[in-house]
Automatic annotation (TrEMBL), chain B:
GO terms for molecular function: ATP binding. This is ABC transporter ATP-binding protein. CDD domains: ABC_NrtD_SsuB_transporters. PROSITE patterns: ABC_TRANSPORTER_1, ABC_TRANSPORTER_2. Residues 2-236 form the ABC transporter domain. Gene3D superfamilies: P-loop containing nucleotide triphosphate hydrolases. It comes from Nonomuraea indica.
Length: 258, 260
């Protein structure tokens, strides 16, 4: 356990020390050493009464709420719509081109539209994230629901499995490997879009802190934002992979033996 | 129990790929009978079974199960498909696979669990309930599929080449399993196979289908002494005679049976 951790993580301190040495030797203000970034973060964000300072709470929390809330909304809408489209006969044939088009629009391109459409603030971020990440979820859900093995559906028919169980115990699990492939993409995409939308149309959030630091040419501040985003992305991805591993254990097992 | 009158099925009628799978098939199965259907590969056996199960709508003729015209899957009918690996749900434990159909029987959770366990015990898989299908061998998975059908307590059980993809030893065990369970449950069984020996060994009656389009070319009663036994039954002179007859019918050779 500790052995594998060491084996997987040893490179991080090496890189940090290398960076520190390099930064000190070139002494360029655009490349602050990690120790400076760390002390900057400690002072500004982690010196509050309960660890976090007001600035940290006021900006981290909205970002996290936005990214998780938008992701959850996109998942709910995307999977529901996708499964419905995938299961209703020829509907997918008509909807497919539309979905392909929606997916082809680069999500940040919609930001100016939403900035005009909605009031500055959370609405803009939610709209940008949801619109950007819903396509891979939708496409994969359609694909997964459409390709449920015919034999499995016939088995359900023969044994008179009622409609709601057919949906929750057969169609959704059968489509879940595909659905999760879409979700995996959407997690990292949601974080990217959160930052982009906060850089422009926001008065709080980690992206907002980044843009403020950038306007002030505050190099340690920029790097601190990058570090926090990296950690947030890492945590969200790990959480997602944990859930995925639980939900798709059967799938990996079945594939190994197939 | 099961009456089939003038059954006809054409795949893709009116298209260039039109295929006559079944043509004027007539068959009647009494309650409690174990009927084996044999026929050459691709003759339309699965088509016949899927019509009985209400999974496809035949283009002509009538099928009645328990006197009722089949429009959708009859209530008391279970199927054991040939391809067990695709008909078991890999995301459910073995016990859940067996218990799922029992919701329709209006049993509560506790009763469903008990019924599933009982069925698993009757196929010799008492310990497998918590496992997942992929953790079992092919023969064990096919036994799970049989247990699922048994727990459902159908009055008519359809089996489509149920032992097609297991090794010879497992196959014999499963044949004996079918003979055992039909003794315990009041059930009519229609078993499709392409194995002539198997049809004579398991069946009370063997019906032989022609090449496509399928119709009945032979209908033989099997009067072998019970209980059947893999060694002695297969040595029985009647067994040898019957398998010869069935074999000839399947190959379409009209050679007369040797006179004893
Ligand atoms: N959905 C379909 N559309 C068109 N033709 C089909 C379809 N299903 C089966 N057929 C054809 O009908 C014929 C009979 O098929 P069926 O599966 O009933 O044969 P079978 O006797 O069960 O064969 P096997 O012994 O190989 O299991 C085959 O020639 C097959 O190609
Ligand atoms: Mg077949």
């Amino acid at each position: 356990m500790i052995g594998t951790l060491v084996r997987r993580l040893w490179l991080i301190p090496v890189v940090l020390v290398g960076w520190e040495l390099l930064a000190r030797s070139v002494a360029n203000p655009f490349l602050p050493p990690p120790t400076l970034i760390a002390s900057w973060m400690g002072e500004r964000w982690f010196s509050g009464p309960l660890l976090l300072t007001d600035e940290a709470v006021d900006n981290f929390v909205p970002s996290i709420v936005r990214v998780i809330g938008s992701w959850a909304a996109a998942v709910l809408v995307g999977v529901t719509l996708g499964v419905a489209i995938g299961r209703i006969g020829r509907l997918a044939d008509y909807v497919d081109p539309l979905v392909e088009f929606g997916r082809a629009v680069p999500p940040p391109a919609m930001l100016p539209v939403f900035l005009v459409l909605f009031a500055m603030g959370t609405q803009v971020q939610v709209a940008t994230i949801v619109f950007g990440i819903i396509w891979p979820i939708l496409l994969n859900s359609i694909d997964g629901a459409r390709n449920v093995d015919r034999m499995q559906m016939e088995t359900a028919t023969v044994f008179g499995v009622p409609a709601h169980l057919r949906l929750f115990r057969i169609i959704l699990p059968a489509a879940s490997p595909k659905i999760f492939a879409g979700l995996r993409l959407s997690v990292s995409l949601a974080l990217i879009l959160m930052v982009i939308s906060e850089l422009k149309g926001s008065t709080d959030g980690i992206g907002y802190l980044l843009s403020v630091a950038s306007n002030n040419a505050d190099m340690p501040g920029i790097w601190a934002g990058v570090v926090v985003l990296g950690v947030l992305g890492f945590v969200l991805n790990s959480l997602f992979l944990m859930i995925e591993r639980r939900m798709l254990g059967w799938h990996r097992g079945a594939r190994r033996t197939a | 129990m099961l009456e089939i009158e003038d059954l006809t099925h054409v795949y893709g009628p009116g298209t260039p790929n039109e295929h006559h799978a079944i043509d004027g098939l007539k068959l009647s199965v009494a309650a409690g009978e174990l009927l084996c259907i044999v026929g050459p590969s691709g003759c339309g056996k699965s088509t016949l079974l899927r019509s009985i199960a209400g999974l496809i709508k035949p283009t002509g003729g009538e099928i009645r199960v328990g006197g009722e015209l089949v429009r959708q899957t009859p209530d008391n009918l279970a199927v054991v498909f040939q391809d067990y690996s695709r008909s078991l749900f890999p995301w459910m434990s073995v016990a859940d696979n067996v218990a799922l159909p029992l919701r329709r029987r209006g049993m509560d959770k506790q009763r469903r669990r008990e019924a599933a366990q009982e069925a698993l015990e009757s196929v010799g898989l008492a310990e497998a309930g918590r496992k997942y299908p992929f953790q079992l061998s092919g023969g064990m998975q096919q036994r799970v599929a049989i247990a699922r059908a048994l727990a459902y307590r159908p009055s008519l059980m359809l089996m489509d080449e149920p032992f097609g993809s297991v090794d010879a030893q497992t196959r014999e065990d499963l044949e004996d399993l079918v003979l055992k369970v039909r003794g315990h449950h009041q059930m009519t069984i229609v078993l499709i196979t392409h194995d002539i020996d198997e049809s004579v060994y398991v069946g009370d009656r063997v019906v032989v289908l022609s090449k496509a389009p399928a119709h009945v070319v032979g209908d033989l009663r099997v009067d072998l002494p019970a209980p059947r036994d893999q060694i002695t039954t297969r040595e029985h002179p009647d067994f040898v005679r019957l398998r010869g007859e069935v074999g000839r019918l399947v190959r379409g050779v009209d050679a007369p049976a040797p006179t004893a």
